[in-house]
Amino acid sequence: MSAQGKRRYDRKQSGHGGQTKPVFHKKAKTTKKIVLKLQCQSCKHYSQHAIKRCKHFEIGGDKNGKGTSLF
Fold it and tell me: Bias category Basic residues: which stretches (predicted)?
């Protein structure tokens, strides 16, 4: 929030009258998209690669463990 916006919001909120701006409550997504940050070894440049949504993500882990899933 910018400085002027913060001053405006605080001024509007002060005194009686309750919450004056809408408060967002309808969060629909339960998972986040998995993003891999890959770094170049020579120039140290980062590139981001988005993968699908999933609740659990694990890189590596046990190769033959029961119940482990690699993406």
Answer: 1-10
Kind and range of the H or E run holding 12: helix 3-13
Give the model confidence (pLDDT) of 16-66 as tens digits.
999 999 999 999 999 999 999 999 999 999 999 999 999 988 888 776 666
- Name the phi and psi angles at 12, rounded to 5: -70, -35
What whole-number percentage of the chain has pLDDT above 90?
A: 72
The answer to the question of residue 20 being in a domain is no
Contact in structure between 53 and 31 (CB atoms under 8 Å): yes
Question: Which three-class secondary structure state does DSSP give residue 49?
Answer: strand
**CA–CA dist 47, 34 (Å, integer):** 14
Evaluate whether 51 touches 33 at the Cβ level (below 8 Å): yes
